[in-house]
Amino acid sequence: MIACTENCIYAEDGLCNLNEVTKPSSTPIKDCPYFKERKNKND
Ligand code: SF4
């Protein structure tokens, strides 16, 4: 997993839980093709 603190449906506890993402952790989040905004933390 990689570190990520975006408000993304895949981000949990500061980590990306999307297994497909195996890029280096320093990848700018704006380049993440998997980002999906989540509207509340329970989603
Ligand atoms: S999919 Fe991208 S934006 Fe979403 S948690 Fe993972 S790295 Fe962050």
Descriptive account of the structure:
- By secondary structure, the protein is largely without helices or strands.
- It has one domain (1-43).
- The protein is built from no helices and two strands.
- The protein has strands at 11-12, 15-16.
- A two-stranded antiparallel ribbon has the order 1-2.
- It is globular, with a radius of gyration of 10 Å.
- The relative contact order is 0.32.
- The mean pLDDT is 76.
- The site of iron/sulfur cluster has 13 residues, from loops.
Summarize the structure.
With 43 residues, the protein is largely without helices or strands. The protein has strands at 11-12, 15-16. The termini are far apart.
Task: Set down the secondary structure blueprint.
Layout: E1 11-12, E2 15-16
Antiparallel strand pairs: 1-2
The chain binds iron/sulfur cluster.
Q: How far do the termini sit from each other?
A: 20 Å
- Major sheet attributes: 2 strands, antiparallel
Percent of sequence in beta strands: 5-15%
Structural class based on helices, strands and sheet pairing: little secondary structure
Distinct bound molecules? iron/sulfur cluster
Number of domains: 1
